[in-house]
Amino acid sequence: MSISAPQPKPAQPGNGSRPDQDDSATAVIDQLVAANERYAEEFTDPGMDARPVRHVAIVACMDARLDLHEALGLELGDCHTIRNAGGVVTDDIIRSLTISQRALGTRSVVLIHHTGCGLLNLTEEFRHELELEVGQRPSWAVESFKDLDQDVRQSMARVRTSPFLPHRDDVRGFVFDVTTGLLREVDPA
Ligand SMILES: [Zn+2]
């Protein structure tokens, strides 16, 4: 298979510069595919089972600044990571958690929102504007919020009250500070 002009690897990976990057939208996926080829060259099959080693599922915002494995000391195979805009517990998150617990053995749930979340600036008016623009109202709620802690509590409550989840005792919620890298736990009360 041919890949358009793969760029050389940075001489010193991890020094913050990313000389292999090109902001052109048409090039980004080619860059990812090229990076994967380098990854696969080093990759050895760890022979893991699909069941997460640490029996934990993490529900978090999709935010690009949040590296869950690095931030939580997680290794490959340790956990399920389930992400969406906001890290909000929607029906689809419940679907994934149900499969995670019932089919793949997880028992604990960690919920992570973060400072500076894009959803803090949106309102349900976003749906209305979408409808006006495209002529169709989305079936989903935007799930925007004004208060991070309150939304973490709401998400914890949705997990704890879901009849589909057999393990609802070990559910904890946090706000990740994107400027310090620290998690702050949210009191569920
Ligand atoms: Zn976010």
UniProtKB/TrEMBL annotation:
Q: Does the keyword Transcription apply?
A: no
Cofactors demanded by this protein:
Zn(2+)
Q: Which UniProt keywords apply?
A: Metal-binding, Zinc
Annotated region described as Disordered, given as residue ranges = 1-23
Q: Which InterPro entries match?
A: Carbonic_anhydrase, Carbonic_anhydrase_sf
Listed under catalytic activity are: hydrogencarbonate + H(+) = CO2 + H2O
Check the record and name the CDD domains matching this protein. Answer: beta_CA_cladeD (cd03379)
Q: Where are the transmembrane segments?
A: none
Enzyme Commission numbers on file: 4.2.1.1
| Broad enzyme group | lyase
Which SUPFAM superfamilies does its entry note?
beta-carbonic anhydrase, cab (SSF53056)
Q: Which family does it belong to?
A: Belongs to the beta-class carbonic anhydrase family.
User: What's the stated role of this polypeptide?
Assistant: Catalyzes the reversible hydration of carbon dioxide to form bicarbonate.
Provide the protein name. carbonic anhydrase
User: What is the species listed in this Swiss-Prot or TrEMBL entry?
Assistant: Streptomyces axinellae
